[in-house]
Amino acid sequence: MMSTMDTDENLLTIGQVAVRLGLTTSTLRYWEERGVLQPTARQSGRRLYGPEQLRRVALIQIWQETGMMSLAEIATVLAGRTETGHWRDTVRRRMAAMDEQIDRLTQAKAYLAHYLGCPRDHPADDCPVVSEEADARIRAV
Question: Is 23 in contact with 29 (CB distance < 8 Å)?
């Protein structure tokens, strides 16, 4: 499993990887259980990680933080094209979900901006626009 790039001198223990990337060792072990990360080698039962695995850990973090991807989605992307699917389909679905979330957040921001701009002291009780939106929702149900 060790590549020519991975020599004993550039292998890191699970603890070193965790500290370096701000994770817990239990997170790394969980990722291994889920199949998204494998150690480069084991020495006396200790997990050792090379530069390729370190890069994979960083990518998993980036995808979780910025792409809001689940570990299952990340596993699919890391697996690439398989008999049961393609990573691009997973990314497309994630992007569609993000577009929906952006739409909801845009609506929420406009609503809050109206609240801030409303001259009433108690918009929830006194603003005709807010009252009309609430009444419209009641009628729609």
Answer: no
For residue 68, CA distances in Å to 51, 72, 123 come to 24, 12, 34
Band of residue 6 on the pLDDT scale cut at 50, 70, 90: very low
| Single-letter residue type at 66 | T
Of 73, 54, 53, residue with least CA distance to 63:
73
In contact, 72 and 25? CB cutoff 8 Å: no
CA atoms 119, 124, 129, 131: torsion sign: negative
Q: Each residue of 70-120: pLDDT tens digit?
A: 999 999 999 888 887 789 999 999 999 999 999 999 999 998 998 899 998
Global pTM exceeds 0.85 = no
Q: What are phi and psi of 5, to 5 degrees?
A: -70, -30
What the block records as the tokens of 11 is 């292998």
Q: Which residues on neighbouring strands pair with residue 85, listed in sequence order?
A: 82
* CB within 8 Å of 32: residues ≥ 6 apart: 38, 39, 47
What is the third-level CATH fold of 1-79? Answer: Multidrug-efflux Transporter Regulator; Chain: A; Domain 2 (1.10.1660)
